[in-house]
Please model this.
Amino acid sequence: MKLLKSLFLIATVALISALLFGCSKEGTPDKPAEAKSASTETKSASAETKNAGSAAVITIKHDLGETPVPSSPQKIVVLELGFIDALLDVGVKPAGVVDDNKPNLIAAEVLKKIEGYTPVGTRAQPSLEKIKMLQPDLIIADTDRHKNVYAELSKIAPTIALKNLNADYDDTLKTALTVAEAVGKRSEMEKVIETHKTKLKALQAKAPQGNPSVLLIGNTNNEIAVRSPEFFASQLLTQFGYTYALKDASKYASTSTNANLTLEQLLEIDPDTIVLMSAESDKRDKEGGRPIEKDPLWKDLKAVKNKQVYEVDRYAWSLRRSVQGANVMIDQADKLLFAAK
Model:
């Protein structure tokens, strides 16, 4: 009897041990499963962080390539005057501006809006040192002026190069859209351009009959600097309803923006209308007129005889190559060129 009790006890202990061992074995795989789940969650979190990081940078296509830029740059340097308006149009103030050490090159109302900006040299020769000290997160350069220093600018901050110096009317609108895209505000600029086109359309309704010819003239101190037909303001005049009288600037001594004519050559073209862009650099006589205006050949011009010579601000019509610059020209054309039409 004792023997049977002992055997029963041993069997019971063995059974309990087997059951405990089995439970222990079944629980073992749970730990790797938990670890695997945690690993998956970590990888997922990493992917979200990467996606969030990539969303903070956008790639902008421009004239000299493609450049990743911060989606909302806070400190921007502009190396042409027209880029100032493009930023202000979408509510962004530049930190650094090339003003040629002459703040009066910038329209008074624009100067007020960018008060406190840091001058960073001239448009022709921006100061890399001053730009670097600003620690910008975006630089907007001109395609033609700054292509030779583009690599150096890009070492300082992400740099996009766009047309302004040699921009025509369409180029200027495209540049404005790209600048806005670079600061994450393209839709705002689209509205600005739409408003501009409405303003232009209203002026076109007053356009003179027969598409009279026009020339845009700057300095007349020595030779007569006539803006080329590709120039921003020249093309805008054709949008107003004029025909640009100079067809081929290469026939004359010319630069990228001007054809330099003699009075005899100007008389050969003989436009119906002349828009004279004035600045303090113009030579003036005691009466305040230009010496050229006393020349018999000047007086023989059709536009002079018919009193179709209009004087405008050279900074507004030559340097402010922007949507707002175009709006200023529309306003001035409405008051001057179209007033009696």
